[in-house]
Each structure stands twice: as C-alpha cells, then as structure tokens.
Specification:
Layout (H helix, E strand, L loop, with lengths): L1 E5 L4 H10 L4 E6 L15 E3 L15 E4 L5 H6 L3 H19 L2 E7 L6 E4 L10 H20 L3 E6 L2 E2 L16 H10 L4 E3 L4 E2 L2 E2 H10 L6 E6 L5 E2 H12 L5 E3 L11 E3 L14 H14 L1
Parallel strand pairs: 1-2, 1-4, 2-3, 4-5, 5-7, 6-15, 7-12, 8-11, 9-14
Antiparallel strand pairs: 10-13
Helix pairs in contact: 1-6, 3-4, 5-7, 7-8
Amino acid sequence: MRILVTGAEGFVGSNLIPQLVKDHEVIALDYLVNRDRSNLPEEVPYINRDLSQIDVSEIPEADLVIHLATISVERISETPVYKDVNISSMYKILEYVIRSNADLIFSSSASVYGSGINFTETSPLNPLSAYSLTKILEEQHAKFCSDTYGLNVTVLRYSNCYGDTSYIENKFYPGKKGVIRIFTEKALRNEVLPVIRNQSRDFTFIDDIVSATQSVIGLKGFNIFNVGTGIETKVETLVDIIGQALDKKTSFATIPPRKIDNLSRRSLNIDKISELWKPRYMPQEGIELYIKRLREK
C-alpha cells in the first residue's frame, strides 16, 4: 500500500513513518525551514510544501492518507489566523482523497470534549479553544465527504501524547513541547517544575499512539475512536514519576492556569477501539522508556 503522511516531521509522524515503511511505501509531506535537519529516514520520498497552499495535483497518488498536519493550540493562540491553515489543509486533503479515491485517517484531539472524565465518542463536544474548534470542523467536513462520496474515513481523537524526541523549531509552523517533555528537560537541568495544580489528563505514550493508528488501517466507512489509556493522571503526580524514572529528587512550584484550553480534568473511555487495539504503556512505564530514549538521543 502507498501511504501519504502529512505532518510527517512532527511528533506522531516521525515516530509512525519508521514503522509504516516496514510494510508499505510511504510519501512524507511537511513544511521545513531546513530540510537538512530532519526527523525522518533519508530514503523516504519527501514533499516540502505548505499543505494549505499546495495544488493537490502535485501530490503523487496514494491508497491511504494519514493526515497528522496541524498547528497546535499554543501557536493558534499566539497567531489566531493559523486556525485557517488547519481548515485549509483539511480542505486540500479532502480534495485529494476524493480525487484519488483514497482512504483517510485523521488525527483529531481529545480536546474536542472540553473538561470531564470517561468521555465516549458520543459525548457532547465542548471546545475551549480555537484549536479544538478547528478539529471539530475538520471532523465534520470529513464526515460530510465520507457520506457524500463514499470515502473510508477514520477519525482518531488522541489524548495528550508524550514521548517526543523530535526537533521542534525546524518547521515553518513550529511544533510544541508537551508537559512531560517540558518537565523531563527541566528535571534533567535540576530546575523546579512549573505545575498547574488540580489538573489531570489521560497521558498516552507515543508507541501506543503509533500502534493505535496502524490498527485502523483498512477500516471501511466512517469511524471515530478515542485513543488514550482510560486512566486519569494528575499533573502533580508526573513530578514524582519523572523523579523516580530519573532517580533524582524533583520539586515543583505552582503556576496560574493557562488562559487557553484551560480544563481541570480529562480522561477517555476507550471501549470502542478495544476490539482493535489496547494501550500497552501506563504513565509509569511510558515515562521510564521515554526518558531512556531522550538520554540516548
């Protein structure tokens, strides 16, 4: 199978592609400042273009698109017009998959639910940021095209991915550092960790994100799945887990809540996807493996 991966240089893409190339032909698409500084194997065919501006006729045909390209909640908050880039990029991908009769896997986000626990795929949506709103709109456009054109579309609502060792600042739309990467880097420098108290998330290790994405290849019709652990972990607890994994004392200082995407709790119900996939790593195991990889890099 030939697979086009957008956002290929990002956190999920740069971890997914090395697994996909074992069994498939992969085309990578992303938008880098310096192509010499890549997160990907050199042998993967590469399109270095702004997806929101590209003429889709320039993209080689593929059997499947895994659409990971997105601009983060932080970047959209800083530069609100970036939300239009997310929407325009989805329009381009939908134009492409209709033209090519390709399947589509789209990386959405658990942020569409807002604050709460045990969200199912049918829970009400409550976006608390422009980023979350773009994800909902992208999902809706994908559903419309699936219904109208008979496309096979699977939406994956990822929850708080961690395990990132990719380059962040090399993209025209720079990536972000998640809380676990921020905490780990600061702990390695013996710095105090900045904690927003009384918050929890469903933290999902990158290897599980990759395996979940691979598990839905080939599904027919329109599907939405939550991807997480189903476990609610307090942010304060991360301080202790990271300290144990590093075998060093860690400390934290309380900081005010963020102005964007400020929610107190989040965990996902993953019963629906459990027939296809189950998470392997809970936070303790995942963070230990992440720190090992980060030190090796």
